[in-house]
Amino acid sequence: VALITVASGTILAILLSRSITHPLRTVMLATRRITAGHLNERILVKSGDEFAVVANAFNDMTIQLQRTLADQDRVEQALRESEERYALAVQGANDGLWDWDLRAGTIYFSPRWKTMLGYEADEIGDRLFEWFDRVHPDDLDVVKTAIADHLQKETAHVSVEYRLRYRDGSY
Description:
Order of helices and strands: HHEEHHH
Number of strands: 2
Oligomer: single chain
Structural class: mainly alpha
Mean pLDDT: 91
Helix content: 55-70%
Distance between the termini: 107 Å
Shape: rod-shaped
Largest sheet: 2 strands, antiparallel
Strand order of the largest sheet: 1-2
């Protein structure tokens, strides 16, 4: 009787352990496949127990992840197209343009802007001093004040006339 009880208990423990570890292993493997980029991964739901609730939540999560990534891809494509249009507009305008990224603290100077001052494209970097060092000393305070007013939302845009130093030192 004792041997039958121990054997029955062992078999019951093994079956109970497998009923817990098998669903956990299924979720773990599905998670690894999602992480590896297999976004169509789904867990087959065979029962109505707690595992089915977890499996359904996992499946819903993967569907939402696919939608989010598809939305992100559409936004990134629209951004690329917008950047291409902007680049073409800058080239077509033939104006000397600059664009200051306040968060990064860098400035984009169009090739035409550099050429207008007598420089090659690679001779001027993307830092603020590249601009301010070329502003005529008598105009620098006016330029900085116009920028500060705009940053403090006192003006809708920066509108200021100032002189820039050419490569040969003239303004």
